Amino acid sequence: MAPVLSVIVPVFDVEPYLDICLKSLAGQDHGDLEVVVVDDASADGSRAIADRWAREDSRIRVLEQPHGGLSAARNTGLRAARGTYLAFCDGDDVVPAVAYKSLIAAIEESGSDFASGAVRRVDSTGVRPHYGYHDVFDKQRRRTHIRRLTALVRDRMVWNKVFRRSFWDAADLSFSLPAYEDAPVMMRAHIAATAVDVVTDVVYLWRLRERGQPSITQRYREPDNVAAWMRMIVDTYNVIRDGVPELVPAYADDMCRGDVPMALGALHLHDAAALHDALTLARSFVVNVPAEVIDGLPERTRRILGHLVDGDTAAVRELVEPS
């Protein structure tokens, strides 16, 4: 008999964290689930940990693939998933016990296509709020939509959600970007949905790694990753422009105040030649930002973006904070 929920867990060199991740999934209050672990050719002890859990808990199974990255691993898991509902969890993170029970209860009550819940950051010092979500999960909402709740333009991660598998397939969702892959897919999901639910329960603990290999998010200063970050920003902009153009100003404002200047901080570590691709993508985004958004930004940010468009990377470097 197929499980109610499939949780897809891509794994690549997360040995210090995988045991607690799988323990959190095995201990969910909603127990009718399968955990589909996809080993993306880990070189550490991750596979042994996953295999041990699979031997001890029949709800956990382990797949393997040649190294292809997070998107490919998630897509492999999707092809194998059998549940009525879908969820995703990265192998270094933690899912609170109430998470899937709360999210599934919401969409079973409302009939929405998916439900999204609150997120916290976690490291050795404890758990703290995630700054980007302060007004997204401030109260329970049923059958809302990104067109009505524009704050959902910042709800761009996949792992704080449960989806109806029928919706996921009908919307033809999958992952394609090699890094920072969540945002374009989640904006397509929000746009395609008839209705979504928002729950205030904390449903995901997003880890800041302090041991082992740093996550892709923590390696954002590397030139290839800065370029991937900018590609994500541009691709997400295109999805929003084509699907809900009225939300372009909200998305552009969020990127201009945060992600773009933060990414440009890599100019303190690398010269403009090394960051050529990233800078080209950043310019292609900024030139399309509506004038009213630019006018509403802090003066320093306006100067940064103006110098970026003019190609004056030295002036940009003087103004941005080091990454």
Account of the 3D structure:
This protein has 323 residues and is of the alpha/beta class. The protein has two domains: 5-207, Spore Coat Polysaccharide Biosynthesis Protein SpsA, Chain A; 220-319. It is 42% helix and 18% strand. The protein is built from twelve helices and nine strands. Strands 1, 2, 3, 4, 5, 6, 7, 8 and 9 form a nine-stranded mixed beta sheet that branches.
Task: State mean pLDDT (0 to 100 scale).
Answer: 95
| Residues in helices, as a percent range | 40-55%
From the helix content, strand content and strand pairing, which structural class follows? alpha/beta
Number of helices: 12
Distance separating the two termini = 50 Å
Query: Gyration radius, to the nearest Å?
Result: 20 Å
Please give the domain count.
2
Per DSSP E runs of 2 or more residues, the count of β-strands stands at 9
Uncertain stretches: none
The largest β sheet comes out as: 9 strands, mixed
Output the helix-strand order: EHEHEHEHEEEEHHEHHHHHH
List the helices and strands and how they pair.
Blueprint: E1 5-11, H1 15-26, E2 33-39, H2 46-56, E3 60-64, H3 70-80, E4 85-88, H4 99-110, E5 114-123, E6 126-129, E7 141-144, E8 161-164, H5 165-170, H6 182-192, E9 196-207, H7 223-243, H8 248-264, H9 276-286, H10 291-295, H11 299-310, H12 313-319
Parallel strand pairs: 1-2, 1-4, 2-3, 5-9
Antiparallel strand pairs: 4-8, 5-6, 5-8, 7-9
